Amino acid sequence: MKFKLFFILSIFGFNAMAEVKLPALFSNGMVLQQKSSVKIWGFSTGSKKITITTSWDHKTYQANTKYDGTWDSYLNTPTAGGPYSIQINQENKITLNDVLIGEVWICSGQSNMDMPMKGYGGLPITNSLDILVESVNPKLRLFHVEKAYSTTPKNDVKGLWRHADAETAGDFSAVGYQFASLLQKHLGVPIGIIQSTWGGSPIEAWTDKNVLQNLLGDRLNFNRAISKANHQTPGNLYNAMIKPLVGYHIAGVIWYQGEQNRHNHQDYLALQIAMINLWREQWNIGQWDFFGVQIAPMAYANESRLAVPLLREAQLQLTDSLSHTGMAITIDGGEEYNIHPANKTLVAKRLAYLALEKTYHKQGIASVGPKFESLQIKGDTLNIKFSGIPLGITSYGKPITQFEVAGSDKVFHQAKAKIKDNKVIVVSEAVKEPVAVRYAFKNWCVGEIYSVEGLPASPFRTDNW
Question: Which CATH number covers residue 72?
Fold first, then answer.
C-alpha cells in the first residue's frame, strides 16, 4: 500500500514539475522565414500534448514529447509582417512576443566576418560611426551566437534576438549587419540575421569530423590549417555553433572565411562542397543559397607567392561546382599589411547584390563581374576575352598593371595591357612566344578590370603550373 501511494505521488510530483522549454533561437523579437513551413522545436519533461498557437492565423498546432525529451512542429508562415505572438502550452505556458515574419540569413566564417561594426582594438571599420548613427531599425533583428566549442553535437546556443541600433549593431558582424541592412531597405520586409563566427577558424572546424575523415583520410592528420586550439579542431564549431541552429528556416548563408586555409588550398574546393552539402542535408529545406567572399589581397609574410592566389582560385571554382552558390570578389578591397581590411561596406554590398539578383530575382541589379572566357595568342600578343559583360569592361581610365606573361620556360614577366573592343590585349617585351597569362595572381595586388556595372574581375590564370 505504501509503495502504491509513493508511486502515485511520484507521478503527480513529476507532472507538477513538468514544463516545456525552448532553445535560445525561439524567443521574443525573433524573425521567422516568410511563406514557409517553419520548424519550431524544444524540450519537455512532461508527457502531455504540447499546443502551439500563432496569432497571424489563429491556428493551433500540436506536438508530442519524444523519448529523448524533445518535441517539434511545423508552422505555416504568411507573407512578411508583424509583430505577432506565438503561445506554447503544456503544463506551463510560454508566450513569444514581437515576432516578425520576413527573411532570415546566417553569416558565418572567421575574423573578417566576425569583425564587429565598431571595429577591433586598433582596427577600424570604414565609416563605422556614420553607419551606426543610422542603424536604428525595428525591422532588422540580430542574433549573435556566443562562441562555443564541443567534441559532440549540442542542442542549444547562447544568444538573444535584438533590435538593430547603434549598440547592438556595433557588437555585430560589420559584413553581416550591413548585408542585412541593405536587404531590409531594398526588400522592405523584416530581416533576421544570425551570426555564428570565430576568428582564426579553419573550414574544418565548421564541418562534421566524420565527413572530414571520409573526405581527407590521412591528410586530416597533416593539416597546417588545423591545430589543437579549440576553435581550430575539426568539428568543434559545427557541433556547438551550427548544429543547434539546424532546422531554423533560412533563406541562405553568407560566408567569409579562407585565410586560415591558405595552408591547404589544394583541398579547399572539396572542403567547401563537403561543408555546404552537409549543412543543406542537415537543414533539409532544399538548396538554399550560399554566397562566399573571395579573400582580399595582402602581403602575407613568409608565405608562398601562390598560396593565396590558389586559395582564391578554389573559392571561385565553387560557383561552377555546386548549384545555388556565388562568390563576392574583393580583389580591389585589400590592404597591403592588414589581414582585416577596414572597408566592409564593399564586401557587404557585393554579397547583397548576389542575394538580390540570385535569391530574390530583382531586375536591374548585376552581381557577377567579368569572368575569364578564352585566350587567343597571335605572335607575341595575347587577346583575352571575358564573359558576363553585357555593357563591356573598363579600368576607369587607369593603367592596367596586373598582367604577367610566360613562355615555354614557365617564367612570368610583367606585361603591358589595354582594353580594346571589350577584350584585354596583353604584350610583354620579355616574352616573344607567350603560352600563358595571369591576372592579379599574387598574394598582394589591386584589381583593375571591372564590368561597366562596377564589379571586379576575379584573378585568373591560363596555366596549371
Answer: 2.60.40.10
Q: Flag whether pLDDT at 5 surpasses 70.
A: no
Q: Are 393 and 422 in contact (CB under 8 A)?
A: yes
> Are residues 404 and 255 both part of a single domain?
no
Range of the domain at 45: 18-101
Q: Is 82 exposed, middle or buried (0-12, 13-18, 19+ CB in 10 A)?
A: buried
Record the cell numbers describing residue 125, joined without a space: 571599420
Contact in structure between 423 and 394 (CB atoms under 8 Å) = no
Domain boundary residue among 58, 86, 101?
101
Q: Are 166 and 136 in contact (CB under 8 A)?
A: yes
Amino acid at 69: G
Which of 349, 354, 327, 330 shows the shortest CA–CA distance to 340? 330
Residue 201 lies inside a defined structural domain of this protein: yes
pLDDT one-digit tens code per residue, 23-36: 999 999 999 999 99
Which is nearest to 349 in space by CA: 254, 259, 450, 451? Answer: 254
Number of domains in the chain: 3
> What is the reported pTM?
0.95
Residue 230 has phi, psi (to 5 degrees) of: -55, -40
C-alpha cell belonging to residue 422: 571589350
Listed in sequence order, the residues at least 6 apart from 420 whose beta carbon sits closer than 8 Å to its beta carbon are none
Q: Tell me what the mean pLDDT of segment 430-446 comes to.
A: 97
Tell me if 202 is assigned to some domain.
Answer: yes
H helices within 58-104, ranges in order? none
Residue 1 has what pLDDT? Answer: 45
Helix (H, G, I), strand (E, B) or coil at 415: coil
User: Looking at the structure, do residues 286 and 160 belong to the same domain, yes or no?
Assistant: yes
Residue at grid coordinates 503561445: 87
The last residue of one of the domains, among 101, 116, 146, is: 101
Output the nine-digit C-alpha cell for 400.
Answer: 592596367
State the number of CA atoms in the 13 A half-sphere of 357 facing the CB. Answer: 17
% helix, strand, coil for the chain, step of 5: 30, 30, 40
Q: Do residues 134 and 33 both lie within one domain?
A: no
pLDDT of residue 17: 60
- From its phi and psi, is residue 321 left (phi > 0), alpha (psi between -120 and 50) or beta? alpha
* Residue 64 shares a structural domain with residue 201: no
